[in-house]
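Form P-L/3: holo structure prediction, ligand zinc ion.
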Amino acid sequence: MMQNELIGAGLRGPFALARDTIDEELVDQCPGAYALGFIDNMGRFAITYVGSAGEDLKSKLRAHIGTASQFKFRHFTDQQKAFEKECELFHQFMPRGNFLHPSRPQGANWTCPRCRR
Ligand SMILES: [Zn+2]
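OUTPUT (holo model):
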């Protein structure tokens, strides 16, 4: 329950992870962070994977269609903010689909706000 409230404050959704929903809810060519998951039998959004897109969140989510039933997301105007949000989600939820710490784009010198990696 706590998990749901925390993520509810930062991300929009959940929405069905399907082409028409993605096209309706997201804008083109905009960075962002997202969580994939499903609605559990208590009606809560359970996170299985988190990620971010430095350039185009919409196409990134389209590529995930079929891997989960629901998603939540938030757009950021700035790539670094999208990366930092992904890091926060990773540390907060430790999703089972994320084996490795989020990696920053090549050439960027940003550090994770949680662990300074
Ligand atoms: Zn970290």
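COMMENT: Residues 2-93 form a domain with the GIY-YIG endonuclease fold (CATH 3.40.1440.10).
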